Amino acid sequence: MSIVPTTYIDWHCAACGHEHEARAYGGPIPVTCPQCGVTNKARRGYPILPTNEAWCDDRPRQYSISFGGEKEIQVYLRAATGEKIGHTMNPDWVPDCGDDPIAVARAVLAICKDRYIYCGSTPHVEKVLAAMEACQELSEANRRANRIHELRRQIVLGLAEYEDLVAEPEEEER
Question: Three-state DSSP class for 11?
């Protein structure tokens, strides 16, 4: 059974979790939450649930300002439970950061162990990788929920735009 949504979460309160649903673009968000009365905690969109993530710099950068050296790329790893690390490495060794976050973390750990004589980040990468593996099911469930919210928003706003466009010629004919 397929149900087309008619509303989406336009904004939410970070303090109490109140979610405001709208049928079209909602405009400005309130300064004070109507449910809990807290000021400046309303945030645009749905509350994004944490997921395992891996990303890296788009270009090599100079990270060692005092010692000079070659430009490196920083790879960032974050588990859905909050553990995180950024590890700088040679641009030739950087794994594909668009891959599965756990696979990226494993690749970074392998590089730390195989290509460096000493890598101070190794225990931190191991800790983040262990956290990612432990919360993999939670991360996938959160990723699915986030995607559903985003698709719901796109459908509702698309339908509102469609209804506006269809209604315009009818008004001109009269």
Answer: strand
